[in-house]
């Protein structure tokens, strides 16, 4: 049986008593929500800094206001940069080698493909590892690892690195660690919540994707004027701190803190009150049964194979729908801010002038 999270042990010792099952579930929802929002926030920097790594060669403006902070509905006349501007400001508008060359957009696309390819491959491995390892430690490792490699990508700005291989490698490693997120948080939610009200809970909980994208965009854009490296370091720090929070406060399994499992196997008899939500204290009988059957219970977390999963009714149609939805979503995620910076200001300004 996994060790109790140290943060929960500390709170338990201060309060002098344990939380109720309902409180634990609320904590699990909040912690996993923040965790996966941090995953998505750390994926946003590449889309925000594309316009700085490869600026529009036709426009040089002294006003440096990146999307989504900039006034995209206000048309501004291009101006020639003064020679009196400092070197740092000049460097921001000139781009960053090797992405400022003619094939700069191709290189930016290659690091996106490298990230998503490693992310998709890592999902196959992460799902199996999550079933065999402690989910709390596994999720923490993935978040801290993601934060490290996202931050190292940004450190290329401060270390003045212009080797394409460095940025490609950082994105590949970040993609592998990012793959730990979704299988882990979904497994934790499945451990704590049975089929009852799962649709409602998942519907509300899944807002973490949009919240994470919004947060990542705002974090990256807010510090972009100080150097594009900060746009990676800030979200990288955010996911690293969130990973520490997961290690301290996430109880990945109900039995870790003495509760019964919602989807317990039929041959494991655990007597619980009729109203499971009202269970506040753990009875000795539950503790005894859980301790004696902890090894057997872990056997029920074994994963099924890919073929068996495809044979489940509805899996293939859902997978196809998700594939095309993700294709559109990640296209917007990685390229829409870049498009708005390159062409959006002019077209949106023309639209506003025509109708307002």
UniProtKB/TrEMBL annotation:
Segments spanning the bilayer are 21-39, 113-130, 137-159, 165-193, 205-224, 230-250, 304-336
Keyword terms: Membrane, Sugar transport, Transmembrane, Transmembrane helix, Transport
Q: Which GO terms describe its cellular component?
A: membrane
The places in or outside the cell where this protein is found are: Membrane
Q: Name one Pfam family in it.
A: MFS_1
Q: Where is the signal peptide?
A: none
Chief site of localization: membrane
**Domain Major facilitator superfamily (MFS) profile: residue ranges:** 63-356
- GO molecular function terms noted in the UniProt entry: transmembrane transporter activity
Q: How does it sit in the membrane?
A: Multi-pass membrane protein
BP GO annotations: phosphate ion homeostasis
User: Record's InterPro entries?
Assistant: MFS (IPR011701), MFS_dom (IPR020846), MFS_trans_sf (IPR036259), Sugar_P_transporter (IPR000849)
What protein family does this chain belong to?
A: Belongs to the major facilitator superfamily. Phosphate:H(+) symporter (TC 2.A.1.9) family.
Full protein name:
Major facilitator superfamily (MFS) profile domain-containing protein
State the organism of origin.
Buddleja alternifolia
């Amino acid at each position: 049986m996994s060790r109790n999270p140290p943060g929960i042990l500390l709170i338990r010792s201060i309060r002098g008593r344990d939380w109720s099952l309902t409180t634990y579930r609320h904590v699990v929802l909040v912690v996993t929500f923040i965790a996966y929002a941090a995953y998505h926030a750390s994926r946003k920097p590449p889309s925000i800094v594309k316009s700085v790594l490869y600026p529009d060669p036709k426009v040089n403006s002294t006003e440096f206001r990146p999307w989504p902070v900039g006034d995209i509905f206000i048309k501004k006349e291009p101006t020639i940069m003064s020679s009196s501007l400092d070197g740092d400001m000049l460097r921001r508008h000139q781009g960053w080698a090797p992405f400022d060359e003619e094939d700069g957009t191709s290189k930016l696309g290659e690091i996106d493909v490298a990230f998503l390819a490693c992310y998709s491959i890592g999902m196959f491995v992460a799902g199996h590892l999550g079933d065999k390892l402690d989910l709390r430690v596994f999720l923490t490792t993935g978040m801290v690892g993601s934060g490290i490699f996202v931050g190292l990508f940004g450190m290329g700005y401060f270390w003045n690195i212009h080797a394409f291989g460095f940025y490609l490698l950082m994105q590949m490693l970040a993609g592998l660690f990012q793959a730990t997120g979704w299988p882990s948080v979904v497994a934790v939610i499945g451990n704590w919540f049975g089929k009852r009200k799962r649709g409602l809970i998942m519907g509300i909980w899944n807002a973490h994707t949009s919240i994470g994208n919004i947060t990542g965009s705002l974090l990256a854009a807010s510090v972009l004027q100080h150097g594009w490296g900060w746009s990676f370091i800030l979200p990288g720090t955010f996911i690293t701190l969130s990973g520490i929070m997961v290690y301290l406060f996430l109880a990945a399994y109900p039995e870790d803190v003495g509760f019964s499992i919602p989807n317990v196997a039929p041959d494991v008899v655990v007597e619980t009150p009729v109203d499971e939500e009202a269970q506040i204290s753990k009875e000795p009988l539950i503790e005894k049964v859980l301790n004696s059957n902890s090894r057997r219970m872990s056997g029920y977390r074994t994963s099924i194979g890919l073929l068996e999963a495809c044979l489940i009714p509805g899996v293939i149609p859902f997978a196809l729908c998700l594939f095309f939805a993700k294709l559109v979503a990640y296209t917007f995620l990685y390229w829409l801010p870049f498009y708005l910076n390159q062409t959006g200001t002019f077209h949106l300004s023309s639209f506003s002038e025509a109708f307002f």
